[in-house]
Amino acid sequence: MLTEMGMQAFADRARRELAATGEAASKRTQPARTPGELAREPLTPRKRRLRLAREGLSNPGIAARLFITPNTVKYHRSKVFTKLGITARGQLHRVFPPP
């Protein structure tokens, strides 16, 4: 993956460190996906609840509504943000248009 990203020095270092532990880097069976490609994949029902963040609720507010911990909200939010290629709640309107 590092090689595909043009980060050859990091790829070489990772390969050397893996070799030092007796492991080897595995070959990718599929090319790396871009954020745009990831955004087209369907979200899980849990991750679709991120719409609550677009409505302005904080992590504790979302957690209270869903009966989960704020850390769980934070974990899923970060995964969804990465998958959708966004970095802030203010960008959610592009992904989840108003009802």
What this model shows, in words?
The chain has 99 residues and is mostly helical. It has helices at 8-20, 35-40, 45-48, 51-54, 59-66, 70-84, 92-95. α5 packs across α6 (70-84). The longest helix has 15 residues, at 70-84. The N and C termini lie far apart (38 Å).
Task: Explain briefly what this protein structure is.
The protein has 99 residues and is mainly alpha-helical. 55% of the residues lie in helices and 0% in strands. The longest helix has 15 residues, at 70-84.
Descriptive keywords:
99 residues; mainly alpha; Arc Repressor Mutant, subunit A; 2 domains; 7 helices
Draw up the topology in text.
Layout: H1 8-20, H2 35-40, H3 45-48, H4 51-54, H5 59-66, H6 70-84, H7 92-95
Helix pairs in contact: 5-6
Report the strand count.
Answer: 0
Poorly predicted parts? none
* Structure annotation, total helices: 7
Reading off the top of the CATH hierarchy, the class of the largest domain is best stated as Mainly Alpha
SSE order, as H and E? HHHHHHH
End-to-end CA span:
38 Å
Looking at how many chains there are and whether they match, the oligomeric state comes to: single chain
Biggest beta sheet summary: none
Strand content: under 5%
Task: Estimate the mean pLDDT confidence.
Answer: 79
| Fourth CATH level, the homologous superfamily of the largest domain | Winged helix-like DNA-binding domain superfamily/Winged helix DNA-binding domain
Radius of gyration: 18 Å
The third-level CATH topology of the largest domain is Arc Repressor Mutant, subunit A
Name of the CATH architecture of the largest domain: Orthogonal Bundle
Total of domains: 2
